[in-house]
Amino acid sequence: MSRTEAKHRARVGIARLRSLIAGLLALVAAATVTACTPGDDQPGIVVTTNILGDVTREIVGDEADVTVLMKPNADPHSFGLSAVQAAELEQADLVVYNGLGLEENVLRHVEAARESGVATFAAGEAADPLTFHTAGDGGPEGEEEQPDPHFWTDPDRVRKVTGLIADQVIDHVDGVDADTIRANADRYAKQLTDLTTRMETSFGRVPADRRALVTNHHVFGYLADRFGFRVIGAVIPSGTTLASPSSSDLRSLTEAMQRAGVRTVFADSSQPKRLAEVLRTEMGGGVRVVELFSESLTAKGEGADTYLRMMRANTTAMVTGLTGD
What we know:
The protein is α/β, with parallel strands linked by helices. The longest helix has about 35 residues, at about 5-35. It has helices at about 5-35, 50-60, 85-90, 105-115, 155-170, 180-205, 220-225, 245-260, 275-280, 305-325; strands at about 45, 65-70, 95, 120, 130-135, 140-145, 210-215, 230-235, 265-270, 290. The relative contact order is 0.11. The strands form 4 sheets. Strands 2-1-3-4 form a 4-stranded parallel beta sheet, with helices on both faces. Strand 3, helix 4 (about 105-115) and strand 4 form a beta-alpha-beta unit.
């Protein structure tokens, strides 16, 4: 083969390769547009967390498409978005998110959607948020007060948010039937009222001297406030799982548990239990680590695939863990 023929073949090969790459890029672009476009021309609602996603779907029913960004068993503090999911936010009719700093890697995308003109609703900010204290860099003297994003551990606050989400859907999502949205919201609110009653009855079995909670991180402040528990402390002295405890944090928590006679630690099922196990070691054994579904729903059939099932399962586990039944 002459040098001229070799060069010709090389040029042909490069041209074919470029054509193939261009075709692949076109297919990817088409798939991205398809993924970002709601089916059947229905209006689209995007929800960040799977707990709020379940609540929103109960309210919306078949009136609009609801896309939930957070997968089952994920951590709301650390999950991120793909490029397609970020695009979905900016094409939505309404974005429902928790706020109060919960979705730490997603909030900038929510802000971008808001700036592009998308209606957004921060459920946590509308739920009469509580605050909690965390130790700053200077120890107890540097304590900081932060908003608590975990409002869903109080079903009464979820009931309030249910009505507000219904308002947002009716106001911002074209084509939905307002009467259907209201009926769905009222039906679900009744179920939430029944949940509160069930939790009150179950927690009534826990003696006053055992109504003390220690968790992996600060997540049950709203439940404690609503149902009369004391929060002794958290293994991670923060409202986020992305923080980590110091040796002095663990020592302070150990001493507080010993003073209160607490021997049970509740750990989120979606998070490693290593830190709770460390606390067990610090106290010389005899500490029970009980798993709860505190920040994420599970996949179907795994015990907490809806908000209602999650709260029922947690109530049973907490009563058993605190009474020794």
